[in-house]
Design brief:
Blueprint: H1 10-20, H2 23-39, E1 44-47, E2 51-54, E3 58-64, E4 69-73, E5 96-100, H3 108-124, H4 137-144, H5 147-155, H6 158-169, H7 174-189
Antiparallel strand pairs: 1-2, 2-3, 3-4, 4-5
């Protein structure tokens, strides 16, 4: 197993990052940081895209913005979110985040439980379930008739497959849909991503 490289002066980088944030964000970031580090003594403070916390894999991180601080859990879709704090629809496939606009919104007990759940998920190596995509019947049929296109489609990323499907489904006219199907098969046969 390859060793993981961590930024050696991450704690100082995070100190500087917090010091440069707006006053309301400084308070929030400081509180979040304290809670994360108290939740488990083995958590490593790191730097990747900003303040980042690691234990058996990237676990969570935060960012200060003009009007809020965003705390993101990198495997949040495997978490229970009992207090319904996660903001859905604004994250990528696995990440889930919480926005804070005031330090008073932070419940230390609740946030500690969320951090500990994230630690447990990483420790157990819980695998995230890939999201399933509903393949339109005409697209499925076209793919079944073109082996190279199907092989590339099946091994493409979730996002790439979703873009092809959405493009076909968004056609308003049957003629447009047929053209898009043919174009999709042509591009997939040449191993081309959607964009």
């Amino acid at each position: 197993m390859a060793s993981v490289m961590h930024v050696p002066n991450a704690d100082r980088m995070i100190d500087d990052y917090i010091a440069q944030a707006q006053p309301f964000a400084r308070e929030i970031c400081t509180k979040i940081r304290e809670i994360i580090l108290k939740a488990d003594p083995v958590i490593i403070e790191d730097w990747k895209w900003g303040p980042n916390y690691y234990k058996d894999g990237m676990m969570c991180g935060f960012g200060a913005f003009k009007q809020h601080v965003h705390l993101v859990f990198f495997r949040g879709d495997a978490m229970k979110d009992p207090k319904k704090l996660f903001i859905h629809g604004e994250q990528n496939r696995h990440n889930r985040g919480i926005k804070f606009t005031d330090v008073g919104q932070i419940d230390e007990r609740v946030l500690t439980a969320y951090v500990r759940e994230a630690v447990a998920i990483n420790e157990k190596g819980i695998q995230l379930k890939p999201k399933s995509l509903s393949l339109p019947a005409d697209f499925r049929k076209a793919l079944s008739q073109h082996r190279k296109a199907k092989e590339f489609f099946d091994t493409s990323s979730h996002t790439n497959r979703k873009e092809y499907i959405n493009w076909i489904l968004s056609a308003r006219k049957n003629e447009t849909r047929r053209r898009r199907l043919a174009e999709s098969i042509r591009k997939l046969s040449k191993r081309q991503k959607f964009s």
